[in-house]
Specification:
By secondary structure, the protein is α/β, with parallel strands linked by helices. It contains 20 helices and 20 strands. Helix 5 runs antiparallel to helix 6. The two termini are about 30 Å apart.
Length: about 550
Amino acid sequence: MDINLRIAGQAGQGVQTTGSLLVDALASFGLHVFATQSYMSRIRGGLNWDDIRISDGELFAGRDRADLLVALSVEAVDVLRESLADGGMILFDGPAQPGVTSMEFTGSAKQITGKALMANSVAAGAIFATLGLELDHLYQYLERHFHGKGQATVDMNIACAKRGAELAAPYRGSIKAPLNDGAPGNVCSGSEAIALSAARSGVKFVTAYPMSPSTAVFTELAGLADEYGILVEQAEDEIAAVNMVCGATYAGVPAMTVTSGGGFALMVEGVALAGMLELPIVIMLGQRPGPATGLPTRTAQQDLRFAISAGHGEFPRAIFAPGTIQQAYELTRRSLQTAHAFQTPVILMTDQFLVDTRKNIPPLDRSPQPIDRCIVTDPPENYARYALTDSGVSPRALPGSPAFVVCDSDEHTEDGHLTENLAARVRQHDKRMAKEKGLLAEFLKPAYYGPPAAERVLITWGSTYGPAREAVDHLNARGIRSAMLHFAQVWPIDIEAVNEVARSAGCELKGKIRVISVEGNSTGQFASVLRQLGLIEQCELLLRYDGMPFTGDEIARRVADG
């Protein structure tokens, strides 16, 4: 069973509030939930919607069509009516009109409470009734959710939910809800997972200039500041943010910044500075459509090539791109540990789709477990910050320790003093670049999903994991033997490790199989990286760059039709 609810209206009408309430309530009912957002870059007006997909099995992506559209504005009806699934239903917060069922959520809330604020609870009651779900469970959830605001608030919300159920009583069970599957009641977003992972991994300084979609992570980290002892600073711009992170890590403080494409463009000189000073900075890059301001509240995968080459000169870096909320949690820690182990910049690439997605997952570990900062606590008397080593990683002592720590943004000698000696330049450059061998040795192999010896292999990276996984299931159910190869580390890439995974699955990437790269950009950026490395030859591109995320249905349809 699989139902998609769509709550739609203008910014300022409580779309997000209603969506959040329903996500938590439905998850607590034991249903699998996958929620996504579509919103305009404006404070009021426009057309926004939250999709809440519920099922009796785990979900990994959104859906194109809605089975139940809850419209809070006339525009929501006019624009989204065509996206209604066959047999779907529209509940409209307004007067009756053809093809919709009037519910008057706002008017009912005003009658009960004197204000429209609790219209979301009226809508929740109507939705639960329309889906045929147990209403007592909703009332119990509202009791728990609003307990901290006093009994009067609890009673009014329950009264509003009961009124919504009364309005929808004639349609009770019109849309059959999935069965309780005992899914986890814990709901988490991508931004929450990243922030929690950074906090428990020991990050003590976070600075950023707000820029969607990275602002959600910045806000979550601010919310964890007191619990984990984090200093959170809103910088005047992204140049200041990245340079403050460089300063903090030089002093030994685990630090990170978060930004989006335009902000990252301002950071690239600081990234190169960290490359020369060999500082363990971490940047979360939340992608959105560009260039320039582009579509600031939509999603994209357009910054991969930029991230790989960001910063002047040559220096090693690692780039991770989580595909799920759990991976976002795991790879945030891995990014921090990798940065400190190799003393080099690490970029964690996300996008609006991933950071805003909410899904019920098992509770994440909140206990503090700081990463190893790889600090030399007892440096030798003749300590040299940039001593030559086979691994390229020099012993790192902190300023103020017994060691005399010297660093310089110019090329420098082993002891950190700037130099124009060309032989010394070559030695230091080779030392830095030697870190790539270690980064490749710790390469996170791509994950293969699907049957062995598939005839079609979808190449994916980052947040396309979920939609592509569902597409693979759809295609195999139709007898089209398909699989997915998902990359959560997109730089550097161990060529032999990738080929080993493909060979083990019976799928030679240069063989006769159909290789299709699924990407949220218009040029197939990751496919071009794989082609440059010699991993693939001919490759089809399945691209989307309108600012909306892929769905499993869409990918499966386009693969089958192609």
